[in-house]
Amino acid sequence: MTHYYGEIAALLTAVFWTVTSLSFESAGKKVGSLAVNLIRLILAFVIYCLLNYFRRGLFLPVDAGSERWAWLALSGLVGFVFGDLLLFQSYVVIGARIAMLIMALAPPITAFFSWLLLGEVLSPMNWIGMVVTLAGISIVILKRETPEDPESKKIRITTNYSIKGILLAFGGAIGQGIGLVLSKKGMGNYDAFAASHIRVIAGMIGFAFILLVTNQYPKVWSALQHKPAMKRIALGSFFGPFLGVSFSLIAIKHTQAGIAATLMAIVPVLIIPPAIFLFREKVNWKEILGATVTVGGVAIFFL
Question: What is the average per-residue pLDDT within 176-204?
Fold first, then answer.
């Protein structure tokens, strides 16, 4: 079991992100994605200050060193500001369940940049697992469109979902993939929770700047007064920027970044039961098949 310490941390990350994606989808539809992004990072910042003070005796990760700060701050800007800004907006456009399906494209992006920046090489079995996992995602999101002309042999591959929403989620996948690689490069043997603290600080500053430039701080004040939205933001902040991000860094610290990212990408599978039982969404046979194939791809990593 200890041999798979990083893989287990990645699977727990997927569970945490399932909770946070549903929470932030609901909150974003009520008060807007920008306000949700800043508030959840402020809440996460407070949690990290308290946690790291009791764990390490430091309110802020001042012992990280300038080079580590630079890499982890860059990771926070890419992952939180660029990636999550697009991802959270995709929640509003196409919903968390489909957005997290698109986010499964993060593993190949992570694998490519981990090879480019870290020199990591995935085994053939790892690649097979990744391909099978992505095939499961494709089953859910893609469909064949039969031509109106019965004599035409052309079959188009299309989707039922908003192209804008898909592109937003794809941008989120790029941000997450590159952010993970930058995190691993910057973290080294440093404490994962302290490293997450640095990423949150950078993301918080980044969103504060965006809100200042776009003059949207009144929306933040309105969001703070919206009790139902704040409950969801608080829940999502605990499971997302705190537990989710920290366990994702634990995962990439103990296993290859591409493997960790692929295991984290099973959120679309985990999100189906709450979508059915809590939100009364209808799930068709393609989504069940896609979920089964995706789980099979994840299982290949343990063979």
Answer: 90
Residue written as tokens 């990636």? 83
**Does the pLDDT of residue 9 top 80, yes or no?**
yes
Q: How far apart are the first and last CA of the chain?
A: 13
Q: How many CA atoms lie within 13 A of 247 on its CB side?
A: 20
Q: Mean pLDDT: which of 199-203, 218-222, 236-240, 298-302 is highest?
A: 199-203
Query: How many CB atoms sit inside 10 A of residue 154's CB?
Result: 8
DSSP-derived secondary structure letter, 280: -
DSSP single-letter state for residue 21: H
Neighbours of 140 (CB within 10 A): 25
Please give the torsion angle defined by the CA atoms of residues 282, 284, 287 and 293, in that order, rounded to the nearest 10 degrees: 140
**pLDDT computed for residue 254 by the predictor:** 85
| CB within 8 Å of 163: residues ≥ 6 apart | none
d(CA 283, CA 263): 22
pLDDT at position 147 is 54
| pLDDT attached to residue 149 | 53
Contact 69, 198 (CB under 8 A): yes
Which three-class secondary structure string do you get for 31-97? HCHHHHHHHHHHHHHHHHHHHHHHHHCCCCCCCCCHHHHHHHHHHHHHHHHHHHHHHHHHHHHHCHH
14: buried, middle or exposed (CB in 10 Å: 19+, 13-18, 0-12)? buried
Note the Cα 237 to chain centre separation in Å: 13
**For the chain, what's the residue count?**
303
- pTM for the predicted model, two decimal places: 0.81
Q: Residue 102: which residues within 8 A CB-CB, separation 6 or more?
A: 90, 137, 141, 166, 169, 170, 172, 173
